[in-house]
Structures are given as C-alpha cells and as structure tokens.
Amino acid sequence: xxxxxxxxxxxxxxxxxxxxxxxxxxxxxxxGRWRFHAPDGVPEVxxxxxxxxxxxxxxxxxxxAAVAAxxxxxxxxxxxxxxxxxxxxxxxVIDNRxxxxxxxxxxxxxxxxxxxxxxxxxxxxxxxxxxxxxxxLAARGFGCLELKSRxxxxxxxxQVAGLAGDGPVGVLATEDPMGRVVIDACIDAGLRVxxxxxxxxxxxxxxxxxxxxxxLSSIELGAARVGWQAAQMLDGLMKGAAPPKEPIRISPxxxxxxxxxxLVAVGDQVVAEALRFIRENAHRPIQVGDVARAAHVGRRTLxxxxxxxxxxxxxDSIRRERIRRACRLLKETDMLVEDLSEACGYATRERFxxxxxxxxxxxxxxxxxxxxxxx
Length: 375
Hints:
Layout (H helix, E strand, L loop, with lengths): L3 E6 L5 H17 L2 E3 L20 E4 L3 H9 L3 E4 L12 E3 L1 H14 L4 E5 L5 H16 L5 E3 L5 H10 L6 E5 L2 H13 L8 E6 L3 H5 L6 E4 L2 H16 L9 E3 L3 E3 L12 H13 L6 H8 L3 H11 L4 H19 L4 H7 L5 H12 L3 H7 L5
Parallel strand pairs: 1-2, 1-3, 3-4, 5-11, 6-7, 6-8, 8-9, 9-10
Antiparallel strand pairs: 10-12
C-alpha cells in the first residue's frame, strides 16, 4: 500500500489553525497511510523549508503562487486560509459571508434594532464579513455603524445616550480579540454588557472568550471540518483527481452564547415576554395564539408589535426558533429525523421538512451531512 508524505504549512499559534490540524489528523488516522513531515518533531513547516522536499501533498496557508509552485514539482497543495483576496481553487475555507448573515439574523432575532461592526478590515475574509453583515441588516431595513478604531467605541456610548430606551446596540467583532476590546471599552465608558451593548465575536477561541467578565459570545466556525475536507481534497488530488474549479466554502458551525449577548433585547416588554416564551417552548407544538396568551395581549396586537420591532411575524419567529433547535440537534446528535421533528414541535416529518427547507434551503439530511466529517 502506497504511503503518502504530507507537510502542514501552518502556524499553530493561531487557534483556528490548531483546530484545522485536528480535522486533518482525524482524516489521516482513518486513512492509515499518511506520514507527516516533522523535521523538528512537530508537523509544522514554513513553505521556504519545502523547496527541496520530495513529498506528495501540502495543506496550509497557500496562495495561488504557492500552489502553482508545488504543482510544478508534482506536489498537490490545498489552502485553508480565507484571507487571500482570490484563494486558489484547491481551497477549503470558512464561508465568511455566512458569518455576517448569521450574526445579523442572531441579533435581529433577539430584538436588537441598532447595530455596529468592528475589526481589522485589511484582510479579504474580514471584508466579506462586513459586507454580508451590513447587507443582511439593510435587507431588513436596518443601518449599521462601522467602528474603525478602538477609540470609536465612544460612538456607541453617544448612540446609547442619544437613543435611551431603544434597547442595546448589537456589535459584531470580526475577531474574538477585538470583541474583548469592545467589552473592556464599554465597561470603561460605563456601559452595561449586554444590557446596553451586546457583543458577538468570531472563532470561539475559549482563551479569548472566557478569560474576561462578562464572557464573550462567539461564532464557532467548525475549523476541524475545514481540516477534514482539506485532507479529503488532498487525498483525491494525490490519487489523480481533477482539481475543483472553485474553493469549497464551509458554513460556520453555531453561535456559542455567553453573557455578552445573553438577553432578550427588546424594550417592548410584551415582545420580550413573547420571545422568551417562544425560546423556552419551541420544542412543543405551540401556535401564535399560545404566544399571545403568554404575553397577555391579543393576537393582532402581538403581530403588529412583532412586525414593527422585529420585521417578522410571530409565526416566522416560532419557525426560526424551531429550526435553530433542529440545526443544533442535527449537528450534535444522531437522532432520527422522525424523532427530531417531534422534538422541534412538528407533528409530522413532512411539515418539518418543509419548514426546514424554507429556512435553510436544504433538507435535514443534506444539512446533517454538511456538518459531519465523513461524506
């Protein structure tokens, strides 16, 4: 059986890269015939160190020129770095536009009506997050303040002071460390987190997110899935498969909620109570009338308040909460779809499938497959 010699051109100081390497290792263990180049005992090398290396494949931070140089020597190359303006076709990267959309929908679902974004915009992936976040908000009729420096946190303080009683500002920090900066700056400015400012980071680096108070909510990217699929692509290339025409883009895994976003952020107490009821009872077959009774208002009044504040109907809010629950169960459990649909408040699998596809544009089975290592 042929043994493949593999090199990892990665920087393990980056927590995302460490998780990518974990996914590569899982795939390699399954294959049983990969050997990683580790000249100093650690499978981590710089591209310059591979100029005379005679192996089969490289996974790492590879731009188009690096991949072309490797290919010229008969070595396959797969990039896992999303910050190149035009990543090579043989890339597996996080879908950064989906990060922006996910963050916008998350904040809107909490009833937030004012928004901001911050982070280093010098990289291609950060720009995509910015564009998608702002576009998703604009599609729902909301504007977005762009905070361009650490000092710009004062803009949030002025916004909160000028719009007292309108609820908190939702801030997307495109990197977890910047989320920490926002939280510290809010505290220094006398702003409450999350009551005045809700902060959401990206990458879910536990070291960055949990070693502060309040702890930072963050988007878990699922980097291990990037590593697995990058290894799978490399395996095919080394065996003679044609390279893909476009990079594979992996959807972010989920939002890990901590204290920095842990509230139902609606100034209207009726809507807040309704959202709380939906969140706590989405696993049951509740209807709009049940929500109205829990909020102690008429159905028409509740519908009007939802559309004014959240730009969605009560029915849409119930469906979205159920599908969020379904997504997590599909990713984290092996429940049969029949059982899962019931656990998400649907009487039949057919109605669940219809609602799931309406919300995610995918079937439950296809969604589960996308978030599994195998397949």
